[in-house]
């Protein structure tokens, strides 16, 4: 009656519906698959909510990772969650490399890039063909725009073998584009900071690891009698790990050591005023250069960078402590006489201070410099004392220097 009819209908109509549905879904599936396939390469994959493993698969598909290894990996990690004590013969062994940089032990050493450089690259083409040159020396100047003529003259004394880096303390950077060299320079702009503040933050030894020598210079240096390539030749020849060019005697001279001598290539020791040196091999008679135009070898800089304190931004006292970083210091620290500079003593960053209590801005800066010097000396002496005590050694009577 009604039932068989219904059954009859339901046994025939649904069947055709079903096959229709199968065909329909097959067509839709194929279309979707096709659309998906053709649209996939142009879709921004980060906007698709895939599991990250798939995204990384897609991003890394040129690196030889296959779906199969991904699946294997997913399977073994799932299996190891279920039963830790089973050692699955197919399991991918864990990577742990104690000699990797701290914190990166889980990476295969072949992928670890622990150092970088300041070389400029292109946005296109073969990465391996990006670099037309790889400078082995770095020079940094801490600058304000008002010193542009001086800096332009100084930069021209550094060949194309130098990476040029400017730290701008006055926030003006685009103005420097009037100089052709500015386009290949690295510009770092942070207002009202000091040379050592920038150096600590932007010249980490692993960042500047490609450079044999690093010049960390002030902006008020006269370079008429200076040539950087010739300077480096002398520094290599005389084994100077930390150095500076001799200073034109009549200007800005605090110490005998940094005074230029006309009759030689370099000098490493000097006479000072009576009573100034407790030991002829110690600062300020030897093992000593100032911090206005310092040049570091890669190894010396790695040590000095670690000694620079984050809060002591003026670097006062650092000159007396540089000797801690090289051994023997009185042979590896010195002044290059035949490539020399003039310290012009132009007040610059000092004027960026703050007028307080009726005192000029530079006075507050100067007071801070002296205070920092004291703090640094105390910290260094305390650190050495702590080390000796930790090691059961009676601390030697260390002089302030
Ligand atoms: C894990 O495997 C071990 C050894 O095959 C077995 O004795 C143990 O019961 C397993 N544990 C679980 C949670 O399956
Ligand atoms: C740059 O370095 C290369 C290799 O050391 C040297 O041959 C070349 O003379 C240097 N350029 C200048 C201008 O000194
Ligand atoms: C170290 O200094 C103290 C006090 O300044 C002095 O009494 C002591 O003799 C000195 N020791 C040495 C080994 O010079």
From TrEMBL:
It holds the Pfam family DUF707. The chain crosses the membrane at residues 21-40. Keywords: Membrane, Transmembrane, Transmembrane helix. The keyword Transmembrane helix applies. InterPro entries: DUF707. This is Lysine ketoglutarate reductase trans-splicing related 1. The lineage of its organism: Eukaryota, Viridiplantae, Streptophyta, Embryophyta, Tracheophyta.
């Amino acid at each position: 009656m009604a039932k068989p009819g219904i059954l009859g209908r339901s046994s025939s109509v649904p069947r055709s519906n079903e096959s229709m549905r199968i065909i329909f879904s097959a067509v839709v599936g194929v279309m979707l698959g096709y659309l998906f396939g053709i649209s996939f390469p142009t879709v921004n994959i980060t906007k698709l909510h895939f599991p990250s493993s798939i995204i990384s698969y897609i991003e890394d598909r040129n690196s030889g990772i296959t779906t199969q290894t991904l699946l294997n990996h997913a399977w073994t990690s799932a299996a190891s969650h279920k039963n830790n004590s089973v050692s699955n013969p197919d399991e991918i062994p864990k990577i742990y490399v104690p000699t990797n940089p701290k914190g990166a032990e889980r990476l295969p050493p072949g992928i670890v890039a622990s150092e970088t450089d300041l070389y400029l690259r292109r946005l296109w083409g073969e990465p391996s063909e990006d670099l037309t040159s790889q400078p082995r020396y770095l020079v940094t100047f801490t600058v304000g725009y008002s010193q542009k003529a001086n800096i332009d003259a100084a930069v021209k004394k550094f060949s194309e073998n130098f990476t040029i880096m400017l730290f701008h303390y006055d926030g003006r950077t685009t103005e420097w584009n009037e100089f052709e060299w500015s386009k290949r320079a690295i510009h770092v702009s942070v207002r009202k900071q000091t040379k050592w503040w920038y150096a600590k933050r932007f010249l980490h030894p692993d960042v500047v690891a490609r450079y044999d020598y690093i010049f960390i210079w002030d902006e008020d240096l006269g370079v008429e009698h200076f040539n950087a390539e010739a300077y480096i030749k002398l520094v290599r020849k005389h084994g100077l790990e930390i150095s500076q060019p001799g200073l034109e005697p009549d200007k800005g001279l605090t110490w005998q050591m940094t005074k230029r001598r006309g009759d030689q290539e370099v000098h490493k020791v000097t006479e000072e005023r009576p009573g100034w040196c407790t030991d002829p091999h110690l600062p300020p008679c030897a093992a000593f250069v100032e911090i206005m135009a310092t040049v570091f070898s890669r190894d010396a800089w790695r040590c000095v960078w670690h000694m620079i304190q984050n809060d002591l931004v003026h670097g006062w006292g650092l000159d007396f402590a540089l000797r801690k970083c090289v051994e023997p210091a009185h042979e590896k620290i010195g002044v290059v006489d035949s490539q020399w500079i003039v310290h012009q003593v132009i007040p610059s960053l000092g004027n960026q201070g703050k007028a307080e209590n009726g005192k000029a801005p530079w006075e507050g800066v100067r007071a801070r410099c002296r205070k920092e010097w004291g703090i640094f000396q105390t910290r260094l002496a305390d650190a050495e004392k702590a080390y000796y005590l930790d090691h059961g050694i009676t601390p030697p009577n260390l002089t302030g220097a």
